[in-house]
Amino acid sequence: MAFNLRQRDLLKMLDFTTDEINYLIDLSIELKKQRQSGLVQNYLKNKNIVIMFQKTSTRTRCSFEVAARELGMGVTFLDSGSSQFGKKESIADTAKVLSRYYDGIEFRGFAQKDVEELAKYASVPVWNGLTNESHPTQMIADMMTIKENFGYLKGLKLVYCGDARFNMANSLMVTCAKLGMHFIGCAPKKFWASNDLIKRCKEICIQTGGSVEFSENKMNATRKANVVYTDVWVSMGEPESAWEERLKVMCPFQVDMETMRNAEKSNDKGVIFMHCLPAYHGLDTEVGKWVAKKFGKKYPKVKNGEVEVTDKVVNSKYSRCFDEAENRMHSIKAIMLATIGA
In whole numbers, what is the pLDDT of the chain averaged over residues? Predict the structure, then answer.
């Protein structure tokens, strides 16, 4: 069943209904099948989008650019050095001007209020490519990946291990609640989501049959998990001092092979590992080398540059993080097609 999402913004998952989210997931899967069969997909020929980045990105930028071009659109990239956004020109004025040039606007930055204000004054769809609070475009790709593996979503259990206060954990919790899935945030209590958001998600679960819980015990939390998910412990823009604070309490929540086997042995549906990337799982990045050198003696779990996840897990039979990365392109294509409209 198709839904009319034309001219809708995608700012946070709370704004969309269960049926609308499922529609975007299924459209993503269909567009992926079309691409794999060689079908030309220039449904939005001669339209144009602008993608605005305060924060750097690999997957978000590349997926938007490739998806737009395959849909037949032109793409303009603006980073913080090539735009007057919020500096010499107000967000409202920027939105009004860009709406005269483009058929859609993507924004990846820090404050949720910035993307909300951009959408308020824009007359074309605005898509949140990530803020500190929310990462909705990632959610469609993630749920697409899970559905590809299990064939369905409702009733599955997803455990998020890591800092559960910010964009990824918040977005996953909301999305799981909307889709009738069972979400567990596994983290030290001071790193749990806000009580207000937890309460709101639990209210949603009453209607969908899902559930939301939090735990400080990784092995208990991951029993019967179908999806084990993690993300970096220190995000872009945070100070170097945040590493000491996180490592001190987060090392027990590292996703290792013991974690995955614990989930696998306790359910008959199987378990997959997911990570939105980039992941610190070895000494092949500057961050991994720095963490190992600076903190490896004090915190042995990170001595090999493995932080939130081990290298064995990332490259194991459980891992779907590279499928997930590919699916960013297909899901963003679906989001743009649905909201701009052919």
Answer: 96
Residues 260-270, mean pLDDT to the nearest whole number: 93
Q: Is the dihedral of CA 273, 277, 278, 284 positive or negative?
A: positive
* Across 235-249, average pLDDT: 88
Q: Does 82 score more than 90 pLDDT?
A: no
Three-state SS string across the chain, please?
CCCCCCCCCECCHHHCCHHHHHHHHHHHHHHHHHHHCCCCCCCCCCCEEEEEECCCCCHHHHHHHHHHHHCCCEEEEEECCCCCECCCECHHHHHHHHHHHCCEEEEECCCHHHHHHHHHHCCCCEEEEECCCCCHHHHHHHHHHHHHHHCCCCCCEEEEECCCCCHHHHHHHHHHHHCCCEEEEECCHHHCCCHHHHHHHHHHHHHHCCEEEEECCHHHHCCCCCEEEECCCCCCCCCCHHHHHHHHHHHHHCECHHHHHHHHHCCCCCCEEEECCCCCECCCCHHHHHHHHHHCCCCHHHCCCECCECHHHHCCCCECHHHHHHHHHHHHHHHHHHHHCC
The whole-angstrom distance between residue 92's C-alpha and the CA centroid of its chain comes to: 26
